[in-house]
Design brief:
9 strands, transferase, alpha+beta, five-stranded antiparallel sheet, Aminoglycoside phosphotransferase family protein, 13% strand, 9 helices, AGP_Transferase, 294 residues, Aminoglycoside 3'-phosphotransferase, Chain: A, domain 2, Phosphorylase Kinase, domain 1, 2 domains, EC 2.7.-.-
Length: 294
């Protein structure tokens, strides 16, 4: 997936678990078929999962999760995977890693979740997360999600050029420039998850039950947590917006946080993970359709 991917195998994880957390050494270790951009997952028995960073940019997530998810969990209306133990790098594997509870549930689809109910549930989660006291949280810096979106401008424009005729470059550029023109967030910084893709949500009994993969966690502009309106619940965007609130300018920035990762992901994943590139194209199509309807 990445030029600097660090491969991990079930045997390797089993060895590290046995050496560092021997109380679980008797449990089988099996790879999880689902994967994201920055971790490989391995079941440990039935109730645990090892989260193994695959790239350097994810190297700090284990410690971030262990520090902040226990702080946030009591306030949230759904379950979050606060780590049960941390693992250290060794001579064969370079990153800190974690063992977390394996949370039951499934990625939401039209078959297992009503999009309008999901939009309301997700909106309630976002609203609750943003209301938690963020004064001691880690501030977003650089070009991380939650900082001013203009920091992504050169990367997005390069991606628009690289995407070629896969997108309507003129319309996409116009839409992107409207996002850039929105005023910066003037309120107090809030806690944000930052990556509320369908793959980072779990549903049970057709309701949102857990939010996972907190690698983008931090304190900043709330707009990135509104971006699921175009890639997670596009058919129930209005229900999501009503559940979350916020002003028009925040939603303009949110549209940018949907567009930016989608556009940069199209050329990046086109040959390596085509499904991710296609997801980016669907997000851009949803943004343009939304703008056409205004």
């Amino acid at each position: 997936m990445h030029a600097d991917d660090v491969p991990t195998t079930a045997d390797q994880v089993a060895r590290m678990v046995a050496e560092q957390h021997p109380r679980w050494s008797h449990l089988p270790v099996t790879p999880v078929a689902e994967f994201g951009t920055d971790h490989c997952l391995f079941r440990i028995g039935d109730d645990l999962v090892a989260r193994m960073p695959r790239v350097a940019w994810a190297a700090d997530q284990a410690h971030s999760d262990a520090t902040w998810l226990p702080v946030l969990a009591p306030y949230l209306p759904v379950t979050v995977p606060a780590p049960l133990a941390l693992g250290e790098p060794d001579e064969h594997y370079p990153f800190a890693w974690s063992v977390a509870p394996w949370l039951p549930g499934a990625t939401p689809t039209d078959e297992n979740a009503d999009p309008h109910t999901l939009a309301a549930d997700l909106g309630g989660f976002v609203r609750t997360l943003h209301a938690v006291d963020a004064s001691a949280g880690p501030r977003k810096t650089g070009t991380a999600r939650g900082t001013p979106i203009r920091g992504w401008d050169p990367y997005v424009r390069e991606a628009i050029d690289e995407a070629g005729d896969r997108i309507d470059r003129a319309r996409v550029t116009e839409a992107w420039e409207d996002c850039l023109a929105a005023p910066d967030w003037a309120g107090d910084p809030v806690w944000i998850h930052g990556d509320l893709m369908p793959g980072n949500l779990l549903v049970r009994d057709r309701r949102l039950s857990a939010v996972i993969d907190w690698g983008a966690l931090g304190v900043g502009d709330p707009a990135p947590d509104l971006a699921p309106a175009w890639y997670t619940v596009p058919s129930a965007r209005e229900e999501f917006r009503q559940a979350v609130g916020y002003d028009d300018d925040t939603w303009r920035r949110a549209r940018g946080w949907a567009m930016g990762p989608a556009l940069t992901g199209i050329p990046y994943y086109w040959d390596t993970v085509p499904a991710f590139a296609q997801r980016g194209l669907r997000t851009i199509a949803a943004v343009l359709a939304d703008l056409d309807g205004q």
